[in-house]
Amino acid sequence: MSVTPRISARAARFAGVAAAATALTLGVAGTASACNISEFSAKASCVGDKGVITVTDVDASGTPATVTLFDAAGKDLGSQVVKGTREGATITFEQNWAPNTQYRVHVKTDKYDVDDDIKGGVTTPGTACATEKPTPPVTEKPTPPVTEKPTPAPETSTPVESATPAPSAPETESAAAPAPDNSASPAGGSDLAETGASSNTGLFAGIAAALVVAGGGVVFALRKRGAAQN
């Protein structure tokens, strides 16, 4: 047996072992870098006064994955696509969650046949997100206008009505007598005016003449008696 065939067989054996080792290493490395469900995580938190559920993907291969959120009753609350990175890529679901509520997160990829839920799902904290009450704006009270007080009207005394009504003046049965008519009677009438002659004028003249004659006789008698005494 020559030395050359023996060396060639040994070299071939070493080459096969090396190739197998390389293939195994590459296979392990490929499996390690493949996307799997353990590279996804989820948690519930608050952003301000809003509740959110955040999903993080640390798949270094960058395999796109569709993440779907379900409530405890199995209702689909929405889906998003995430492409993982070594540092971790995140997506956020805005969800007004209640305290101590369970959610289910499902991950599906077209590559590496990942189609599973994140283990344990998501349980929200026991305290709800704080709601800040808006501060009411400070408004200045309007100053009331200055109005002058109206001058009170002078009080007028109300006449006191007598309890017993005053008797009314008796109504006269006839109208007042008309004033006498002083106009002169027409000519040829029997009555004369107050300043004119009447039917007794002659009688008065006769009496006056008799008085004059009597007076003259008395005077004459007195003179004659006086002469006799002297």
Please explain how this structure is put together:
The protein has 230 residues and is an alpha+beta fold. The protein is built from two helices and eight strands, in the order H-E-E-E-E-E-E-E-E-H. The strands form two sheets. Strands 3, 4, 6, 7 and 8 form a five-stranded antiparallel beta sheet that branches. Strand 1 and strand 2 form a beta hairpin. The N and C termini lie far apart (256 Å). About 15% of the residues have low confidence.
Give the arrangement of secondary structure elements.
Blueprint: H1 3-33, E1 40-47, E2 50-57, E3 64-70, E4 76-83, E5 89-94, E6 102-108, E7 115-117, E8 122-123, H2 201-229
Antiparallel strand pairs: 1-2, 2-5, 3-4, 3-6, 6-7, 6-8
Attribute tags:
5-stranded antiparallel β-sheet; 230 residues; single chain; alpha+beta
Poorly predicted runs of 5 or more residues: 23-32, 169-180, 182-194
Number of strands: 8
Structural class label = alpha+beta
What would you report as the Rg, rounded to the nearest angstrom?
76 Å
Termini separation comes to 256 Å
Helix content: 25-40%
Report strand %: 15-25%
Average pLDDT rating: 75
Shape: rod-shaped
Strand count, sense and closure of the main sheet? 5 strands, antiparallel
Helical run tally: 2
The ordered H/E elements are HEEEEEEEEH
Provide a compact summary of the structure.
It is built from 2 helices and 8 strands, in the order H-E-E-E-E-E-E-E-E-H.
